[in-house]
Design brief:
Number of strands of chain B: 6
Low-confidence stretches of chain A: none
Structural class of chain B: alpha/beta
Strand order of the largest sheet of chain A: 1-2-5-4-3
Order of helices and strands of chain A: HEEHEEEEHEEEH
Number of helices of chain A: 4
Number of strands of chain A: 9
Helix content of chain B: 40-55%
Largest interface: A-B, 24 and 16 residues
Number of helices of chain B: 9
Shape of chain A: globular
Shape of chain B: globular
Mean pLDDT of chain B: 83
Largest sheet of chain B: 4 strands, parallel
Strand content of chain A: 25-35%
Oligomer: heterodimer
Mean pLDDT of chain A: 85
Chain lengths: ~190, ~200
């Protein structure tokens, strides 16, 4: 079974459940419904032999509805083919089926998405934060979370402060000035 | 000659030669101490002798948190050889360390662990903030990174660079040695002992 046959089989089996299919520079992307995820994922692994889950990422389209988008990057070792599955979920739902029982590698990917975006995964065996500590109150990769952070305090575990975005080296300000003016090696303190 | 009590001797020492202590250097051959003052006896301040011992045998706590730790390892290896400055004994137990070298990005998740390890080190202790991240947060202006370990620990030496070269770390170590050699060690670290001595005097 070559790549095109696999996609044709996917179209045939889930024709009505596939919202859209797009091709861009030989990359094939299917947009699906969140409820059909587990069924389609299982079919992709077992019948189309997409046996390798490369990555799961999430996107926050703040201001749009549905707000969140999750992207699954699949790879087939036998066919040497990529397949991308996309689905969108609203903030109110905020939950999608886990695929960690289909591709075990999804376990930590889903934990990271939960940690950074606050999207929950139904049926995940161990849905804890993976980068930030348990009890950190925010989801820092959401678009409405400021880059400089928000203060928080967990005694004996960790604390966070708001980071100053002004002054010192390594700081750039948006402007049309040259890089030399925008990023001085050390900016004099503003008194 | 009247019998002198220990405290009387101490009081006499304090009044007259208190800052002066006599160090007897060991002989290399088998003869006993010879009488020539200049030969085998050195006069110095107690603080100077103590600081001299301390600064030439700094045992680092390698707090390697990011890429600076690679340079720290290079500093310890043969090409740069931190052993030339007496600081080659990297200890992974804080209880055996003198100087914590914070090498790398201190995230908020790690911050209290770093502080705790520092608190487990015995006095006297010093801190080197190695590199831009440990000194100021560096290029990480973000929600996750502590903007300089000096918000939690008293830093003695800051080293610039991203990461600093091993020479820079060695230069920082030498700066720390200079700083240690200027310290009023006994007065700072044993105030109770000095109080007792003052009481014995009065």
């Amino acid at each position: 079974m070559i790549r095109e046959e696999a996609f044709a089989l996917l179209n045939k089996s889930f024709g009505e459940k596939i919202q859209s299919k797009s091709e861009f520079r030989d990359e094939t992307t299917y947009t699906i419904e969140a409820n059909d995820l587990r069924e389609i994922a299982k079919f992709c692994r077992d019948d189309l032999s997409f046996d390798y889950l490369l990555d799961i990422t999430s996107i926050d389209n703040l201001g749009e509805e549905p707000r969140f988008e999750i992207v699954y990057e699949l790879y087939s070792m036998p066919h040497a083919a990529h397949l991308r599955l996309k689905l969108r979920i609203s903030e109110d739902v905020g939950e999608v089926d886990t695929v960690s029982n289909i591709w075990p590698t999804a376990n930590w990917h889903e934990r990271e998405i939960y940690d950074m975006m606050g999207i929950k995964f139904k049926g995940h065996p161990d849905l804890r934060r993976i980068l930030m500590w348990d009890g950190y109150p925010y989801f820092p990769l959401r678009k409405d979370f400021p880059l400089e952070g928000l203060p928080s305090e967990m005694p004996d575990v960790a604390f966070t402060k708001v980071t100053s975005m002004e002054g010192g080296p390594f700081v750039t300000r948006p402007s049309t000035a040259t890089a030399k003016d925008r990023e001085p090696r050390a900016r004099p303190p503003q008194l | 000659m009247p019998q002198l009590s220990g405290s009387a001797v101490l009081a006499f020492l304090l009044r007259t030669v208190w800052p002066i202590l006599v160090f007897v250097m060991p002989e290399t051959d088998s003869t006993a101490y010879d009488s020539k003052i200049e030969g085998n006896v050195i006069f110095t301040r107690f603080d100077a002798a103590l600081n001299w011992v301390r600064k030439n045998s700094l045992w680092p706590m390698p707090m390697g948190l990011a890429c600076c730790a690679i340079e720290l390892m290079a500093t310890a290896a043969s090409r740069f050889d931190i052993a030339r400055f007496g600081a080659e004994v990297m200890r992974f137990s804080p209880r055996q360390c003198d100087v914590m070298i914070v090498a790398g990005t201190v995230t908020y998740k790690m911050a209290l662990a770093v502080k705790r390890i520092y608190e487990q080190m015995p006095e006297p202790k010093w801190v080197i903030a190695m590199g831009a991240c440990a000194s100021t947060g560096g290029m990480y202006r973000s929600y996750a990174v502590l903007q300089g370990i000096d918000q939690l620990l008293p830093v003695d030496v800051y080293i610039s660079g991203c990461p600093p070269r091993p020479e820079a770390l060695l230069a920082g170590l030498m700066k720390l040695q200079e700083k240690i050699s200027r310290e009023r060690s006994l007065r700072r670290q044993k105030p109770e002992l000095l109080e007792k001595l003052e009481e014995a005097l009065s």
